Amino acid sequence: MSTLKAKRALFSYPKYWAECYGTAPFLPTTREEMDALGWDSCDIIIISGDAYVDHPSFGMAVIGRVLEAQGFRVGIIAQPAWDSKDAFMELGRPNLFFGVTAGNMDSMINRYTAEKRMRHDDAYTPDNVGGKRPDRAVMIYSQKCREAYKGIPIVIGGIEASLRRIAHYDYWQEKVRRSILFDAKADILIYGNAERPLVEVAHRIAAGEMMDTIQDIRGTAVIRKEPLPGWRGSDSTAIDKIGKIDPIPNPYGADDVGCSKSEFKQAGIDLKAEAAKPIMVQPARPKPWEKTYVKLPAYEQVSVNKPLYAHASRILHQETNPGCARALFQRHGDRSIWVNPPAYPLETHEMDAVFGLPYQRIPHPSYGDAKIPAYDMIKTSVNIMRGCFGGCSFCSITEHEGRIIQSRSQESIIEEIEQIRDKVPGFTGVISDLGGPTANMYKLRCTSKKAESTCRRLSCVYPDICKHMDTDHTPTIDLYKKAREVKGIKKVLIASGVRYDLAVRDPRYVKELVTHHVGGYLKIAPEHTEDGPLSKMMKPGMGAYDQFKELFDKYSKEAGKKQYLIPYFISAHPGTKDEDMVNMALWLKSNDFKLDQVQNFYPSPMANATTIYHTEMNSLRNIKNNSEVVPVPKGARQRRLHKAILRYHDAAGWPMIREALRKMGKANLIGKGSNCLVPEEGRDEKIGKGGKKGGRPALTRHTGFSQFKKANTKPKVGGNRQSTR
């Protein structure tokens, strides 16, 4: 567990007076449910873009139950109709505030594919029905709350708000938008995991504080005219370059000096007399980052100047360590966004308390027999941790959950497994996952207190695993063994991605995983095979993959099991040239991988890779006049080409691939040979071009039934992942 500790424990506040109403079976969603609980009003109303599932994997349920545990009466309005204010008045006027979230996913990523096509499904909606939430849900919901009840504070949070806390590139409009606080007209934004800052906000509002005084809470952002009083500022251009650790000042204001007794004697100092004097302890000097803010380039500048945008993004990502992060200040016209330093991570006992709240672990009864795919996917899984050391540039976990690993205790996890066994309808004895953002970072930590509290690296494992990084997987191995021993549990699977460069540092873990916790397939994410894209993804090279595969195959054989790795790859990622995609496709073919679904790079707000996509500059390094120009696949045609190359076996993409190979001077890869990527144009394709049999490519001997059978001797791999993960 992290050495960074908050001044106040999460559940140490005096309970709000409404505690006397007790715990609700489900947080109420209608007036009738409120009446049954004896409530005349709600203290806090949560608006969410997801269906209400009372389960610790759903953000609204976690936040609702945490606030309930503080004594507040919490109601939920899930997926309200947004064409009028009526649905937002369903539970009446909240006594304290509205809490607004788009749900577990960003609403734009939820509603649109990476190619900006409208999705017609929604895994967080009953019966997978699409269209139950608006575009930019946080903004729309907040505006409707303001229409419904004027003067009620609005607190926004969740991943959608979190990733838009400052000026940010918007992929869907292809422009830089201002902070979401302005468009949502909200009073305060909570970024990251919300429990700690939200509980403080709730208690301060309940104590009668006005919103214009609740502006100094860690993990929050607010609109201000000027920086907070008493804070000193520095321009972002003066910030140290990435990776440099700020010096730790001596807590007593002086350097340590070692002197021998003889040196004291020569100086005329009587040690006994000095020892008899009262000890005067100097007050600790403030650390260089305390009460300090960084002035970012203004919205008006970053919206038109790509180097300044890249610079601002780089500074933001350096200020994510709660131990040393400075506040951020960014002008937007005559007002500014003030982003307080991140909240301190939850300690193990706090995590246990959050996950131990009285969740029903099922969807709200009002949905009847409707299926909610996201719930079906996680109902027998257990979240064992938060955060990720990886810092992959395309992933938003660092911006949202942070790099510090927050782990639950083994006892808390085992208790949840027992609850699944006893409460989940139709449970078959199989736990589908013990995981989190990454399966094998449970209880891993930085072994240096100094480094943990001052480090500004973007990743603990790239370009190499940090020397301070703990790679001992013993706690995870012990957890797996204990989970298997729970009565009534037949199998415990690991479905979360495994960080294989960490896993190979402890072969005992790989053996435990492969022997007992793989259900035939294990997913891992090399993402690419070529150094150019990998360096912009901040992912390890294929050497680590090869090491892991060797161990995987070895221990699978020893266990007498036929098991397969399922590698994930991303196409059209910034830094990827056409030649890189061809080389990756050749690697896939040589290893007999035929990808099923492929994820084209999706530029999610505020991710490092999105900055590279927008600016075509390497923002992972200092921004200078001679900064590296990064090749970025843009435009529908090139993005489709990269996706087609990754699915080299799909005949639909062959014409496009052939054309590209010829332009690259790689026509030798077209043909029948084993070293060829795609076949020559077949007779049936030519007929199709002539219009005699239509435009649909025909099956050839290259894609006939015998080849289809061969292709399916190994599992199809790939998946439709989102970069928000």
Automatic annotation (TrEMBL):
Q: Which UniProt keywords apply?
A: 4Fe-4S, Iron, Iron-sulfur, Metal-binding, S-adenosyl-L-methionine
Query: Record's Pfam families?
Result: DUF3362 (PF11842), Radical_SAM (PF04055), Radical_SAM_N (PF08497)
Q: Which family does it belong to?
A: Belongs to the UPF0313 family.
Q: How is the cofactor bound?
A: Binds 1 [4Fe-4S] cluster. The cluster is coordinated with 3 cysteines and an exchangeable S-adenosyl-L-methionine.
**Which protein, by its recorded name, is this?**
Radical SAM core domain-containing protein
**Radical SAM core domain mapped to chain residues:** 374-650
SUPFAM superfamilies for the chain = Radical SAM enzymes
* Region feature Disordered, mapped onto this chain: 681-725
Q: Which GO terms describe its molecular function?
A: 4 iron, 4 sulfur cluster binding; iron ion binding
Signal peptide extent: none
| Transmembrane feature ranges | none
Which NCBIfam families does the entry mention?
A: SAM_YgiQ (TIGR03904)
Identify which cofactors the protein needs according to its UniProt entry.
Answer: [4Fe-4S] cluster
Annotated residues that bind [4Fe-4S] cluster are located at: 388, 392, 395
In which domain of life is the source organism classified? Bacteria
